[in-house]
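Revision sheet: structure tokens.
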Amino acid sequence: MEVVVLTPEETRPLRHKVLWPHIEKTEDCVINIDHREDAIHLGAIHNDRIVGICSLFEMTTQKLNEEKQYRLRAMATDPDVRGTGAGRAIVEKALEIIASKGYDVLWCDARKVALGFYDRMGFDRIDEWYEVRNIGPHQLMFYRFNANAE
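Predicted:
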């Protein structure tokens, strides 16, 4: 599975199909910081088709102590290829990129259905549930690059 850098516009069809079907139009599946300088959009390619995506942004949550934080958002895998390694390949590439930039932690708001996936990828979680409107229950999950961090 090849993972490549995408434009924000290339992420929108999967954002719409998998994450935000409640939004009327694909072109409206935008994150307001998609074009920020620190934004990185990744896609897994299989048979010349984008089958998985995620977006990465330099963002801090007060729930973690690390100074240098990046956030993973809008992670999605096409249901037709789930279980083929697309999601794993994307997260591994994201971890590689963020670690190479010298960040301490990569965190995300994980949907209940994705918790096991992030557990298998080596993420930890804060055992506190919160509701994301139109989407459902989430927990904050994080991957620390420095094993000695608190």
